[in-house]
Amino acid sequence: MPLSPNANSVVLQVGPLKPSLADTLSRDYGAHALPTNATRSSFLATHGDSIRVVVTSGRTGVDRELMIALSNLGAVVNFGVGYDTTDVEFAAQRGIGVSNTPDVLSDCVADTAVGLIIDTLRGFSAADRYVRAGNWTSQGNFPLTRKVSGARVGIVGLGRIGRAIAQRLNGFGCEIAYHNRRRVPDSPYRYANSVVELAGGVDVLVVAAAGGPASARLVDRVALEALGPRGYLVNIARGSVVDEEALVDLLFSGGLAGAGLDVFADEPNVPERLLGLDNVVLLPHVGSGTVETRAAMEALTLSNLDEFLSSGTLVTPVVQVPEAVR
Ligand code: 8YV
């Protein structure tokens, strides 16, 4: 029997979610959805103290203010691997667990990175536009592009997704180097001590580092200048990791050869100046966006929710619920 929404429910949806997940939360858990309009404060005054778990996504997350308003919150269950919109430090201080959906999306996000590398270096999207505009018949052959196989690729962030990207690029005979907060002990790839050092020695710089305050503008103007006029930037992580203004300036002035971007600093807004550039491939944050992967992310989100409701713990925690409050 549909329970939506149950006055006694302890589950709260924050922000938009995959429709089937939102339906399940409302039907099977009687979940409330946090209003985004003027009724938000009265909703929080009425239900705030009874909510035990929030289900949200990387797009929305739970900030400090909302954690305070939900005085008995025990867990934030995040649909997505990235959780930079949730204040995890504050959650940890308050004994609130946080989970994400790692591993299940690494293949698709890595596939997207490789797709962007190929598209950006070979200019396939631009070539497609060329055909559609009738330029092949009126102007002749498309200009020559840049070879992918054997390219030198630098990966910023050698976590699960970074490693999956490297694994794929091995098949292209690419020379791979990386920079990471810490050197990865068992890694066969060359380690660079800084992003600038990495950028200075590669043809393509791929950003695969987690977002959040610690990585904000990690790829700064100096790093982009080190990548240089023959270098390409690919970002499948978070827009915040790159100095977007510097990126746009350099793409415009010829200071970079091109870029493949799935993520932006202020989604869904894309810097207007990029829209007219043919050496830039722009995607609307679709890295994990396949039927199979989104279903796996949904299943893992629900596993975390069920585990929290039944045992007070999380299956894939970023911050585990402390034993004292389970
Ligand atoms: C999703 C993502 O688009 O997992 C992430 O961190 O960025 C993507 O997989 C997003 O989380 C869905 O809201």
Briefly characterize the structure.
With 326 residues, the chain is of the alpha/beta class.
What does this structure look like?
By secondary structure, the chain is α/β, with parallel strands linked by helices. The chain folds into two domains: 126 residues, NAD(P)-binding Rossmann-like Domain (Rossmann fold, 3-Layer(aba) Sandwich); 177 residues, Rossmann fold, CATH 3.40.50. The protein contains twelve helices and 13 strands. Helix 5 crosses helix 8. The protein is elongated. The mean pLDDT is 96. 2-keto-D-gluconic acid (8YV) binds next to loops.
Shape: elongated
Describe the largest sheet: 7 strands, parallel
Helix content: 25-40%
The share of residues in extended strands comes to 5-15%
Secondary structure: number of strands: 13
Structural class: alpha/beta
Q: Regarding quaternary structure, how should these chains be classified?
A: single chain
Radius of gyration, Cα only, in angstroms?
22 Å
CATH class of the largest domain: Alpha Beta
H/E series? EHEHEHEHEHHHEHEEHEHEHEEHE
CATH architecture of the largest domain: 3-Layer(aba) Sandwich
* Strand order in the largest sheet: 8-7-6-9-10-11-12
Bound molecules: 2-keto-D-gluconic acid
CATH topology title of the largest domain: Rossmann fold
In the residues, how many domains can be counted? 2
Q: Give the low-pLDDT segments.
A: none
CATH H-level homologous superfamily name of the largest domain = NAD(P)-binding Rossmann-like Domain
Mean pLDDT: 96
Number of helices: 12
Distance between the termini: 29 Å
